[in-house]
């Protein structure tokens, strides 16, 4: 028998000869539990954001009482783009998280006329196929400050969004995550576009 095989055989016998130790078993389980908690905390605080959408303000993209997952890493190197759905601190009460769609980018002027959104005086309104129904009313103009964004819900006639906030713009550092997908309830929208 080779030395390597003898070494394995010896280690196996030594492991079998050791009596069961409740203390070692408990310590082993505690190490696993602590590692799992640390991994979960790191993921939840630095990688992903988990949020609930309590209202129908984003229907039919995200339904009322849905849960979404967002990436906290999405905007480390890139800026939010028009059309992104984001989780952010509500500007009028930063203890509350909101989920809305980015419409106005820094330095742009947003005008809503007869339910259509126009950017920087364009003759052509934004193409918004995600809207639940045509928006009613005219609002604005809103000139988005540098480093800020203008947010609207997809269900515009039933959304408490930037048009109605006291502080109309969301600073980039108040954006928590870019929404990646809806995981509860499972719906035909799965991945959020």
Automatic annotation (TrEMBL):
Q: Where are the transmembrane segments?
A: 26-48
Could you tell me the membrane topology recorded for this protein? Single-pass type II membrane protein
Q: Where does the UniProt annotation locate this protein?
A: Cell membrane; Membrane
Is this entry keyworded Transmembrane? Answer: yes
- Record SUPFAM superfamilies: LexA/Signal peptidase
Coarse class of the primary localization is membrane
In what residue span(s) does the Peptidase S26 domain sit?
27-184
Instruction: Kindly state which reaction or reactions the protein catalyses.
Output: Cleavage of hydrophobic, N-terminal signal or leader sequences from secreted and periplasmic proteins
Q: Where is the signal peptide?
A: none
Query: Which Gene3D superfamilies does the record match to this protein?
Result: Umud Fragment, subunit A
Family annotation (InterPro entries): LexA/Signal_pep-like_sf, Pept_S26A_signal_pept_1, Pept_S26A_signal_pept_1_Lys-AS, Peptidase_S26
Q: Which UniProt keywords apply?
A: Hydrolase, Membrane, Protease, Transmembrane, Transmembrane helix
- What enzyme class is recorded for this protein? hydrolase
EC number(s) from the headed UniProt entry: 3.4.21.89
Top-rank lineage group of the source organism: Bacteria
What NCBIfam families does UniProt report for this protein, alphabetically? sigpep_I_bact
Family classification: Belongs to the peptidase S26 family.
Protein name (Swiss-Prot/TrEMBL): Signal peptidase I
Organism equals Enterocloster alcoholdehydrogenati
The taxonomic lineage of its organism, from the top, reads: Bacteria, Bacillati, Bacillota, Clostridia, Lachnospirales
Gene encoding the protein: lepB_1
């Amino acid at each position: 028998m080779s030395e390597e095989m003898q070494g394995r055989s010896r280690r196996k016998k030594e492991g079998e000869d050791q009596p069961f130790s409740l203390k070692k078993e408990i310590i082993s389980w505690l190490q696993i539990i602590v590692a799992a908690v640390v991994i979960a905390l790191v993921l939840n605080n630095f990688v992903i954001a988990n949020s609930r959408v309590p209202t129908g303000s984003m229907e039919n993209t995200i339904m009322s009482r849905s849960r979404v997952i967002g990436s906290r890493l999405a905007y480390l190197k890139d800026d939010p783009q028009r059309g992104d759905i984001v989780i952010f601190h509500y500007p009028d009460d930063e203890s509350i998280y909101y989920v809305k769609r980015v419409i106005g980018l820094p330095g742009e002027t947003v005008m809503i006329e007869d339910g259509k959104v126009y950017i920087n005086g364009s003759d052509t309104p934004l193409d918004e196929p995600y809207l639940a129904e045509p928006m009613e009313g005219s609002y604005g103009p809103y000139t988005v400050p540098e480093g800020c964004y203008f947010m609207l819900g997809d269900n515009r006639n039933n959304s408490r969004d930037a048009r109605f906030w006291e502080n109309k713009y969301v600073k980039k550092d108040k954006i928590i995550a870019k929404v990646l997908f809806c995981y509860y309830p499972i719906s035909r929208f799965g991945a959020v576009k």
